[in-house]
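Researcher: Here's a chain I'd like modeled. Treat it as a single chain, no partners, no ligands.
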Amino acid sequence: MAFARESDRVRANAIVWLAAVLLGVMNARTATATAAAPASPAAASSAVESSRPAAPTLHAGAIEAGIAGSYTSVDGASHATVQIRAGRFASCGPALIGLEPELSYLHVGGLDEMDLELGVSLHRRIGGGRLVAFAAIGGGVREEWLGSFRQARHPLGASVGLRELVDARAALRFEYRYRRILSDPVADFSEHELLAGVTLLFRNDR
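Model: Modeled as a single isolated chain. Structure tokens:
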């Protein structure tokens, strides 16, 4: 009788051990199949999107330094404008606000003009891409000279444009500008100008 009990105990332990082994094998196979299963299209797409680097954009605290220009020729008369600008940007809700001083030079025949202006601009990224749209208002003083004759006028107006970031440190800038020229000795007049330029960005690596 004691031998029968001992035999039953051994048989029961063997069954428990065999069940544990079978359970472990099944768990291992399930884990392997799960790891080898292909990801769903949505998960694969999400992984690809997350692996792509974010498009560069303009950040608060960035400093801009750039040069722009335009060239116009009408009926044999031509003039060229060269503009040097700087800017500093700060956060303004979902947009950025900029303070942008600039110096521009224009040569028409024997006439030379030098403009010194200060502008306030608002910048907003378009979608999640590289384009940043902006609008600005500004004004300043224009010094004109023709030989020994000099005169001051006062440009005042607005601008709209686009900045396309090549990377976090460089951008292309395209701008339409309207100016009303005040203090002309004959009559005030308006100017329309298209400018294209390049910009370097500092402290824009966030």
